# Entry
Amino acid sequence: MLEVNGLCKHFTKDKISFAAVDGVSFSMDPGECLGLVGESGCGKSTTAQLIARLLREDQGEIWFQGEDLRKPAIWKRLRRDIQMIFQNPSDSFDPRYTLLSSVKQGLRYLERCSKDELEHRAKDAIACVGLKETYWKRPIRQLSGGECQRAAIARAILSNPKLVICDEATSALDVSVQAQIVALLQRLKQEKHLAYLFITHDLALAASVCDRIAVMYRGRIVELGPTLEVIREPGHPYTQMLLSCVLPARVDQPFELPDWEVQRPLGRGCAFYPYCSKAAPECAEKSPQLQTSGRRAVACFHPSCL
Amino acid sequence: MLEIQQLQVSYGGTPIVKDVSLCLAPGQIAGLVGESGCGKSTFLRAVMMLLDDTAHLDGGSILFEGQDLTTLSQKQLRSLRGHEIVMVFQNAALASDPMKRVRHQFYETMSCHQSGVSKKDCYAHAESLLETLHFPDPKRVMKSYPFELSGGMNQRVALAVAMANHPKLILADEPTSALDVTVQAQVVKRMRELRDQFGTAMLVVTHNMGVVAQLCDFVGVMYAGRIVEWGTVSEVLGSPRHPYTCALIRAIPDMSGADPVGIPGAPPDFLCPEPGCDFAPRCSRARAECRKEVPSRCGFSNTHWVLCPYAEGM
# Structure
């Protein structure tokens, strides 16, 4: 359904250009949930914004249902099929609008439909995300974080999209509310056959939500595969380090942190070279490409799996 | 060393922190977990007597080494703050002065409390502290401005500045919440090392159970302004008793891929409080009595107690 090929995006700061997204390629099937995980600054949000056409790529191609997403002529039509949910729910609404009118705004510009139909569909969507009728006339500023995120989901599903991009959609919420929203997203995925591009920095959350995950590091995907396989048997040394740093919320699991310190990047070769325990001379010279084997792919000269 | 008894704080007549009591001995690390709005940050600020004008301390006492902080004057408090009791905030980069180099932050903290300390001694002391926190190049860090350092480095600098006067108690408000997992793990490890080396007691507010499990000795679970369960980390995380603690732990996603379970309902509205246990409306074990009066403490061991008469295993 979605096909991303060699996507690149450079940003310039103080006349120095750096690649936020550096040759990212992946594909998604309908109804699939793909997780993009990584630390802050690894380019996961930029990738999402490129796919949602909020940013323009420098290089690479994005194909959605067989159409080239780079053509502005089809954006308006495709915006219906690709919707986005942002991290901070209250920031993505106008605080003066009521819930019903903010949800309606989502469709007003995308589809031509009568006032009654618009109202009807908005009310349906609000009911679908579990908000009661009493909320219709409430201003957004009076909603709690979890309710606001439900409203954002209602707005996103209103146009019957095929792909919803969730950019840290539950990161600002408490765990008990996060679990409610995750359950809602999974129910909608089943009912409406939605595909999610699920961006998160929380690996444990990705483990429970995503079918496949892509681990990003410095603008590149370093590992891609079925979630539980990647977590049980990480192939890339970076994935291994990332997983070893997740503090287990249990007392029966001893936790030992590997010692490492922030290093200067080499500028060539593998970006993870300075930290890598398996680094060999070739890693400093060439940067490894994503090698696919079966359902998994790892960008490393010495992967632990494959 | 720190003994807090029945502390109560309210904003404009609305109680936010209700009857919170806890004890902390030197070298102990206690964690306070709870969801946003449960009053944990307000409580931490109250311990430091840093409440703003809209907040009011309604009762209770904060005994720090035998002195009741609630009765001290601002001048007496100033001599304690930054010296014996130090606070570390969530966003260390925002909490430090962007116009001053790191070394000045150290000098400011030390010269306030140690009259006549020379810059040279101060910088030497600061460098040794930065070395303990595993900075590869302390000299460069000392010359840097806060905005030139990464989030994790700033947080570790804040810890080093906090340690400058060898305080007896560190209060940390979400010290790792703004950091990536890799950096978070590192900061947690350094905090453990500081405790082992200097015997500093810490009171850490967080919403991350992983931080609690790996850093703390004791943990208190807060809900709607009260500590509903208190015990050692292995008691509370290993065999949680209060229905809220059990539900909270089930809501945390883990690596197994199992779906997290949410807690139905919403936290209580502080503005229209209802009588009885605050968790009763969301509780699967609630009975009619629960909605009448606030339950009293039920103990499981010397260290483990809950505010619930119908807790798991009662």
